[in-house]
Amino acid sequence: MEFKDTKGIFQQIADNICDKIISGEFPVGSKIPSVREQAAAMGVNQNTIMRTYMELQRDNIISNQRGIGFFVTESAPQKIINMRKEEFFDVHLPEFMRQVKLLNLTKDELKPLLDQLNENHENK
Amino acid sequence: MIEINNLNFKYGKQAKLFNELSFSEEAGSIVGLLGKNGAGKSTLLKLLTGLLAAPNNSIQTLGDNPFKRLPRFLEEVYFVPEEYELPAVKISEFIQANAQFYPRFDNEKLHQIMIDFELDPKSRLSKMSYGQRKKFLIAFALSTNCKLLVLDEPTNGLDIPSKAVFRKVVASSLSDDQLVLISTHQVKDIENLIDKLLILDKGCIKMHSSIWEISENYSFTTVSQLTEGEILYSEVAPSGYKVLKKAKRANTNVDIELLFNAVTQGVTLN
């Protein structure tokens, strides 16, 4: 089996920005920290941060307004949630299922999970 | 900015240190120079900065033969060596005597970095610890705004919080027309600070690549069992094996130590 590996630096920075977008810290339309500000805050190479911003721009999560900076797009929160769902079904759920089988877990033992699923269902 | 063509070099009658070594590098990057003890990292830095003479004009730094030590060259290069002697003067006196040699010297920047490093301008250089002096020289080097900054083992002697300050200060205070070359064994100290890697081994450059390219083409994972297949290199780790594989867009963290060991043990990455 493969252990859960540390994500690459580019992905770490992207995840961090995406987290802040879906938590509302960086709302739609707001300006995210500049490459230089991020470099100073994290001690990470400016080219590395720029690469990450270009990837986020390619995914339409941020947009570049020349000379002003990078802004959170209208569609960013939904895009991020879709990407996270994909990751959940590709990576986390299979591993979770593997553990459920391996440990022979029952409905009673996973009651908190079932309760949460019911709650989410009612809220939809 | 740096261009080396077929460099051959040896000290006196000793064996050849560099054999037809070539590479070039442009401004706008922070390059990590890695090599085993005795591989010639410090020698290469001395050749690039004109402290040693390279045969046959095989090195051009900023368009000049560095060993000519032309004023226009010297005012654009700052070298922080691993070991150095500094005069028994106060920090403020050192600045007054040396800043004038660098046309774009930024006093405000120096002041800010000295605050970040908790250095006092009234301290006497000869009374400061090795780490304190190193921090001052790094601060001074960055404030010169030289086109080429060469740092030999910059994090040696720095305490734990100073290493983080070092990364933040270097990452934030550079512009596109500068090139920083950092030679080190302390890979963890600089792994996210550099964007390019240069591996020197057995007299030549074994790898010269951006971290992005490496991250796009290889994966660095930990597995409990080694399987047959596309494994390029592996090492035993507490949880099993660290494994280097060829993989597109795997998005794993580049393990520079694993990569270095693979490259210096003859694994070809292509």
How widely separated are the two ends of chain A?
A: 37 Å
Q: At the first level of CATH, what is the class of the largest domain in chain A?
A: Mainly Alpha
Largest interface: A-B, 23 and 30 residues
CATH architecture of the largest domain in chain B: 3-Layer(aba) Sandwich
* Total tally of structural domains of chain B: 2
CATH superfamily of the largest domain in chain A: Winged helix-like DNA-binding domain superfamily/Winged helix DNA-binding domain
Q: Largest beta sheet of chain A: what is the strand line-up?
A: 1-2
**Largest sheet, strands/sense/barrel of chain A:** 2 strands, antiparallel
- Rg value of chain B: 20 Å
Strand tally of chain B: 12
Global Rg of chain A: 18 Å
Tally of contiguous helical segments of chain A: 5
Query: What would the CATH topology of the largest domain in chain B be?
Result: Rossmann fold
Uncertain regions spanning at least 5 consecutive residues of chain A? none
% residues in beta strands of chain A: 5-15%
* Number of strand elements of chain A: 2
Describe the structure.
Chain A contains five helices and two strands; from the N terminus they run αααββαα. Chain A has 124 residues and is mainly alpha-helical. Chain A has a two-stranded antiparallel sheet with strand order 1-2. In chain A, helix 1 crosses helix 3 (46-58) and helix 2 crosses helix 3. Chain A starts with 8 loop residues before the first helix and ends with a helix. The mean pLDDT of chain A is 92. Chain B is of the alpha/beta class. The model of chain B has no long low-confidence stretch (mean pLDDT 93). Chain B has helices spanning 41-49, 71-74, 91-98, 107-116, 130-144, 160-172, 187-190, 211-217, 256-264; strands spanning 2-9, 18-25, 29-35, 59-61, 77-80, 148-152, 179-183, 196-201, 204-210, 218-223, 231-237, 240-246. Chain B has two domains: 2-202, P-loop containing nucleotide triphosphate hydrolases (Rossmann fold, 3-Layer(aba) Sandwich); 210-270, no CATH class. In chain B, a hairpin with an 8-residue loop joins strand 1 and strand 2 (18-25). In chain B, helix 4 packs antiparallel against helix 5. In chain B, the strands form three sheets. Chain B has a six-stranded mixed sheet with strand order 5-6-7-3-8-9, with helices on both faces. In chain B, 29% of the residues lie in helices and 27% in strands. Chain B is globular. Chain A binds chain B through residues 1-3, 5-12, 36, 39-48, 51, and chain B through 28-30, 164, 166-168, 170-172, 174, 192-195, 211-212, 215, 220-225, 239-240, 251-254.
